Amino acid sequence: MQISILLFFQILKMFFMCLMGFLVVKSGHLKSRDSGALSAATLYIVCPCAIINAFQVENTPERARALFAMFIAAAVVEFAMLLIATLLAKPLKLSEVELGTVAYSNAGNLIIPIIQSILGQEWVFYTSAYMGIQTVLFWTHLKGILSGDRKPELKKVITSINILAVLFGLAGFLAKVRYPVLIADTISAVAGTIGPLSMIITGMLLADVDFGALFRRGRVWLIAALRLIVLPLLTIPVFVFACRVSGIADGHMIMMIAFLAAAAPSASSVVQMARLYDHDAEYAGALNVITVILCILTMPVMTAVYTYFLPV
Asked: Could you read off the pLDDT of 72-87 as tens digits, one per residue?
């Protein structure tokens, strides 16, 4: 329960950061479109620094085994959520955007600062595995359903900035490379801005949202419930089983990191790809907004349920 309380207050802090971005646009000092430059800086500078910084930990056999277990857990959980969402698609008549929203969570910009705050910097190391698995699926499955072209873009997978950061950080971890203090401190300082920047950007984008129309659109509540409640609950047995068979020290904590990623709001990549392939991007953005707002309540509750079965 303590983790749930810490999580609630951390998400609340991030909501206030989001409010800052919202107010700076509503006050007329900036435009919502001005968030584009900040988004690019976050994607190409801040997020890679956060990933690389996460790998600057001591390489021990136990930690290496735990990272491998996280890769396996992330793959299993992502495919499980994808399977569940696909099975629900026909009876619930989910569109491609709705399917992507339900299946894919924001395991990067939102989860990294949350893990930093409630567990500590050393645990961010394991989020890279989840982000790596997701990035591959973004440019294979998600791209396929939104573009109509089922041929995976392997070049986009390999050259994705997040994948490159994971590979670079992993190589340094395996080679036991530690950066000079000046470089390490610079990367760490940039990495530390990922939470505030991501939330300010989100707030700036929210400033242009017609909340009245959004909340009256009944379908968004169904999709939000699937993303934030139904799928996280259905994945708990996977985490319980994985924790019991892994035999890894602190396995329950590592699995909780994966669970937090699974219980997060919808991935912003769904909105970005919907825009890229001209596939109902406005609706994708509305779904992203509603899940970001509701996660303030749902993530602590889902975490409380998780810790009931797997005490932390």
From this structure: 888 988 999 999 999 9
Q: Are 123 and 257 in contact (CB under 8 A)?
A: yes
Which token pair is 36?
């584009």
DSSP state of 245: H
* pLDDT tens-digit map of 132-163: 888 888 888 888 888 877 777 777 778 888 88
Six-digit token string for 90: 């026909």
CB 184 within 8 A of CB 71: no
**Strand, helix or coil for residue 1:** coil
Number of domains in the chain: 1
- Residue 234 in contact with residue 259, Cβ under 8 Å? no
Q: How many CB atoms lie within 10 A of CB 277?
A: 16
**Which structure tokens are listed for 294?**
């509701």
Tokens 């699926």 belong to 137
Range of the structural domain that residue 146 is part of: 2-309
CATH number at residue 11: 1.20.1530
What's the pTM value of the predicted model, to 2 decimals? 0.85
Q: Looking at the DSSP assignment, which residues form a beta bridge with residue 105? A: 266
Q: Where are the alpha helices (DSSP H) in 27-60?
A: 35-41, 47-54
